């Protein structure tokens, strides 16, 4: 599919993350106001969908979809309504739109806009579905012969995280305190994590619900995915190492998870669908994909010490995942677990086969043994106070990009324990 032309000129720039082909969903708080409003990104602007719906410029009949402060209203409707809303936005913003003068009144500059959470996250489940990541971490912890747990090639492994600590890009990250046991120490101690890390992930956001007890097929699971965001699953490796057996991570990943401010719809990503890699073991029937359900999305991470320029420390691609989000959701619902509107499904850390493609500092520095040298000349094993970590992502089409905006956070010193 080529670039779709818009009367918003900046949307036709081949380098904009937000051409008419994209139309991602966010929320902003206007100057002098307190209440968030749904908006759609187009070129250098946001389109105030909240206001447009109140004025009946967007009128899909029935329930409100864009004037509730976040996108829950649209997400809980059927995929046909998702498509109708997107079609209406394209109708208003395409080159030669008859309602151009009306639509123009809802545009506001994106630069400087205060973006807030686009979705009320109802639940957060995080998976461990990247084979290169699982192999690297397993090799460090258990040796190369036992790198992948015996269930890994059969089950997309996950754990239930916390929705309460999911934050929008730009939110400061407070270094967590926790219980840590130094190698060789007799007793654990309590204090700030010294091995604070990122995890480069994608998040899938569910629209609609499944009743308790009702499994879904992989196809049905794919149909329930409303869109995708970039996701940084901040992790405290020293807290994790001491607490994780036998029930998995807990406080090590409960202090912050950042998401990008824009939900990129499945419709915008459609041209970039790709298949998961070849299976090394045949999957059980309920996990088999009926078609391509992963996406070709270029991803990178930059690290900037306080007041210094950023260095790109990772470049990889979402298509490196072994399991798709649809497979993860189908597995999640397979026991009868209910899925709800606003469910956030973390992919798991995305690493490629090369060293430069590793999606966490744990892997990049091989457990802290091989420090990274930044472009500023400084070195890092894990994150230091004041460092800013930013995830970037875009799918690259013929003369256009489908961007996610950035997913950024600056680490602040740990709080004194009361
Ligand atoms: Ca994770």
Could you explain the architecture of this structure?
With 418 residues, the protein is α+β, with helices and mostly antiparallel strands. The protein folds into two domains: 9-116, Roll (SH3 type barrels); 124-412, Fumarylacetoacetate hydrolase, domain 2 (Alpha-Beta Complex), CATH 3.90.850.10. Helices cover 17% and strands 26% of the residues. The strands form seven sheets. Strands 6, 7, 8, 13, 14, 16, 17 and 22 form an eight-stranded mixed β-sheet that branches. Strands 9, 20, 21, 25, 26 and 27 form a six-stranded mixed β-sheet that branches. α6 crosses α9. The longest helix is centred in the first third of the chain and has 15 residues, at 79-93. Calcium ion (CA) is lined by residues 126, 199, 201, 233, 346, 348-349.
Low-confidence stretches: none
Q: Give the class-level CATH name of the largest domain.
A: Alpha Beta
What binds here, in terms of ligands, is: calcium ion
The percent range for helix content is 10-25%
How is the main sheet built? 8 strands, mixed
Distance between the termini: 57 Å
The dominant shape is: globular
The total domain count is 2
- Number of H/I helices: 10
Number of strands: 27
Radius of gyration: 21 Å
Structure class: alpha+beta
As for the CATH topology of the largest domain, it is: Fumarylacetoacetate hydrolase, domain 2
Percent strand: 25-35%
> By CATH's scheme, which homologous superfamily of the largest domain applies?
Fumarylacetoacetase-like, C-terminal domain
């Amino acid at each position: 599919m080529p670039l779709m032309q818009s009367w918003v000129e900046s949307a036709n720039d081949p380098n904009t993350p937000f051409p008419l082909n994209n139309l991602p969903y966010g929320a902003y708080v206007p100057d002098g106001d307190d209440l968030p409003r749904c908006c759609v990104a187009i070129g250098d602007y946001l389109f105030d969908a909240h206001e447009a719906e109140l004025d009946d410029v967007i009128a899909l009949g029935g329930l409100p979809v864009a004037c509730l402060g976040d996108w829950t209203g649209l997400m809980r409707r059927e995929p046909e309504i998702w498509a109708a809303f997107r079609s209406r936005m394209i109708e208003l913003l395409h080159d030669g739109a008859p309602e151009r003068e009306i639509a123009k009144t809802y545009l506001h500059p994106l630069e400087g806009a205060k973006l807030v959470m686009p979705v009320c996250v109802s639940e957060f489940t995080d998976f461990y579905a990247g084979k290169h990541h699982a192999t690297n971490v397993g090799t460090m912890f258990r040796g190369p012969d036992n790198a992948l747990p015996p269930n890994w090639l059969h089950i997309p492994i996950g754990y239930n995280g916390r929705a309460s600590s999911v934050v929008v890009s730009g939110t400061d990250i407070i270094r967590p305190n926790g219980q840590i046991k130094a190698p060789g120490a007799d007793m654990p101690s309590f204090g700030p994590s010294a091995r604070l890390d990122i995890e480069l992930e994608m998040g899938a956001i569910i629209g609609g619900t499944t009743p308790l007890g009702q499994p879904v097929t992989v196809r049905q699971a794919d149909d329930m995915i409303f869109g995708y965001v970039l996701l940084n699953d901040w992790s405290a490796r020293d807290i994790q190492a001491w607490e994780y057996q036998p029930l998995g991570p807990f406080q090590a990943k409960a202090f912050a998870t950042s998401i990008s401010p824009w939900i990129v719809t499945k419709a915008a990503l459609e041209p970039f669908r790709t298949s998961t890699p070849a299976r090394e073991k045949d999957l059980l029937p309920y996990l088999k994909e009926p078609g391509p359900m992963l996406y070709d999305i270029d991803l990178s991470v930059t690290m900037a010490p306080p007041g210094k320029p950023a260095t790109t420390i990772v470049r990889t691609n979402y298509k490196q995942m072994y399991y798709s989000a649809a497979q993860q959701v189908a597995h999640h619902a397979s026991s009868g677990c209910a899925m709800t509107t606003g469910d956030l499904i973390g992919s798991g850390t995305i690493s490629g086969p090369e060293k430069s493609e590793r999606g966490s500092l744990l892997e990049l520095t091989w457990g802290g043994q091989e420090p990274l040298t930044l472009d500023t000349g400084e070195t890092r094993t894990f994150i230091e106070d004041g460092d800013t970590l930013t995830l970037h992502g875009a799918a690259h089409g013929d003369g256009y990009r489908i961007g996610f905006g950035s997913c950024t956070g600056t680490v602040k010193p740990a709080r004194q324990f009361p």
